[in-house]
Specification:
mainly alpha, disordered N terminus, TMEM14_sf, about 0% strand, about 90% helix, TMEM14, membrane
Length: about 110
């Protein structure tokens, strides 16, 4: 199957909203468990970017895909090095979410650019 932006766009808003909820929820849980203010700040910030992306995609506003891709790059930049260095489950899980976001939004972005 060849993917086009039209095929992906309907579900891309849902992907963005789910990733936003997971990252924001994870940051809040991280704060509740360890008292880590950086966890809640990063989680809620990246979650807000994903949520903004999802809402812009749902309303067919510009830059929804780009904001989702930005959130994925930020999440990957923060989580992948920690996952590789520590091998702990939370950074690995965040890396999986970031990789899924990079793939989803990257495919949509590359379909738009061509």
């Amino acid at each position: 199957m060849i993917w086009t932006l039209g095929d992906v766009k309907g579900s891309l808003d849902n992907i963005a909203l789910v990733l936003g909820g997971l990252t924001a929820g994870g940051g809040i849980i991280g704060y509740a468990r360890t008292g880590s203010i950086p966890s809640v700040a990063a989680g809620v910030t990246v979650g807000a970017l994903y949520a903004l992306s999802g809402l812009r995609l749902r309303n067919r506003a510009p830059y929804g895909v780009e904001i989702g891709l930005l959130a994925s790059v930020v999440l990957a930049g923060a989580s992948l090095p920690r996952a590789i260095r520590t091998g702990k489950p939370v950074p690995i899980g965040l890396s999986v979410l970031a990789t899924y976001g990079l793939y989803s939004f990257g495919m949509a972005f590359s379909g738009r650019v061509r």
